[in-house]
Amino acid sequence: ANGDLITLYEDKDRLFKEELAHMRGPQMFSSFYESLGATRDYFYKFPSTPVTNVSIKPEDIVVNVPFSGEEIFGKYMDLNSNFLEFVNISKKYLKDQDYLQYLDKFNTFFYIPEELRATKQYAEYLENLWDYLQGFFQRVHPLIDTKEISKEWQLDFASKIRSGELRSSRKNGHPGSSQPPQPLRLGMFNDSSELEALGMDRLKEGLEALGLKCGGTLQDRARRLWSVRGKKEADIPNSLRAKPKAVKRKLDQEGTADGEDGQDGVSDDAQKLIATEGVAWNEFRIGLLSEVLMETVNLTRRHAEKQQARSAEEKEAEIREEEFGLLPDLPEDGAPAGEEDDDDAPIYNPLNIPLGWDGKPIPYWLYKLHGLGIEYKCEICGNQSYWGRRAFDKHFQEWKHAHGMRCLGIPNTKHFHDITNIADVLALYATIKDTLSHELFTCELEEEFEDTEGNVLNRRTYEDLARQGLL
Question: Alpha-carbon distance 106 to 301, whole Å?
Fold first, then answer.
């Protein structure tokens, strides 16, 4: 090591002296960051370049990064593997969905049909999803004790599963309790065919929750549910409602079940419920943990939406920017940046040129090319001004011009295009009416009759001669 230091200070190749001279003077900050950026770019392009004068051997360096490239140091979530697993197990029961739709609904389970919830693959999917969410939460928040939170969740789960607020993972529900039917969020569906994918049992449960008739085929139940979408309870017709006795009997059963539930040994009951209600317990804690990570979930969805419109080079540049960061932009005098940007300064626009997508005036040549400095006035629209030929031509099909023509009692057709004066419009309309009146068929003048002698007369002449008895 001493020999290496002596070699550096001797500076036989004079590189050390050049670097010192380059970093002195008023431009020292900009020079330093330029050199740092060039060094980073070089080693990024050539990562296998051997490094000299390093006391630590490369094989002794252990890099332990707890996040994947898609997660970008915990900023986003990587649910691609869980998405593919869910698509594979649900393709027989649900319609196909993309990754963005999955991110919207992966923490809600009301639309999952009972046939799918009863499968072993669905239980494994929930376990894998919970393992990932729990691992991601611990990596992002390593100081938070998840055991205490899990205890509160277990007590809450036990009380809700006994009261019937949660859907049981077994067909008959929890022993000793009566599960009230769970309603469906009809606003999440687009038509009745999507409701049919939930199955007859789930549709029956949704109908019972609304107090509707639950008989009929799968299509009948789906159409009955779809017919009450967006309606209040008072607006539902009586023909769709179930009999009052059946509804009352169900409510009585729920009240009896609630009264029988005890509060002794809550922790033991919670452990037993978690053991028997594995699917419901996983759905419950996934939903709660997703609420804690909701900000990250929203960022992940926006990030995935942006990634679909980016090229491979843009994605690589983003990852590089997140890993290395951006070097500060320094002014030419070398002073640290901190002053306000020019974008915040008031815009100088004396000609009142329209603004573009960036909030700045469009180029003047473009302003002249489209004739945006020419004003067109329309008397029919209340002397409204339109700047540019394109806006003027477009306004003839807009509601304001159509309303003005309707007030004049004139149809807004192509005959009146480019006419903005009320007098000209009325004159043209009178001319068109006069022209059409001559083209119309007049029965009294053009309908022909023939007398006994073979003379051809129009209708009016024939009727006059007939009244006089001259025919």
Answer: 12
Alpha-helical segments (H) within 337-449 = 364-369, 389-394, 399-407, 422-439, 443-446
Q: Which helix (H) or strand (E) holds 125?
A: helix 120-140
Strand, coil or helix: 387: strand
The β-bridge relationship of strands 375-378 and 384-387 is antiparallel
Phi and psi for 241 in degrees, rounded to 5? Answer: -80, 150
Average of pLDDT values for 400-426?
Answer: 90
pLDDT digits (tens, 9 = 90+) for 80-103: 999 999 999 888 888 888 888 898
Please list, in sequence order, all residues whose beta carbon lies within 8 angstroms of the beta carbon of residue 426, skipping any fewer than 6 positions away. 408, 410
Contact 202, 195 (CB under 8 A): no
In whole angstroms, give the CA distance from residue 252 to residue 376. Answer: 74
pTM: 0.44
Three-state DSSP state, 354? coil
- SS3 for 72? coil
Distance of CA 47 to the CA centre of its chain: 40
**Which residue type occupies 290?**
S
Number of Cβ atoms within 10 Å of the Cβ of 348? 7
Cα–Cα separations (whole angstroms), residue 47 to 2, 38, 67, 70: 28, 14, 21, 21
What is the distance of C-alpha 109 from the center of its chain? 19
Coil, strand or helix at 378:
strand
Number of other CB atoms surrounding residue 217 within 10 Å: 10
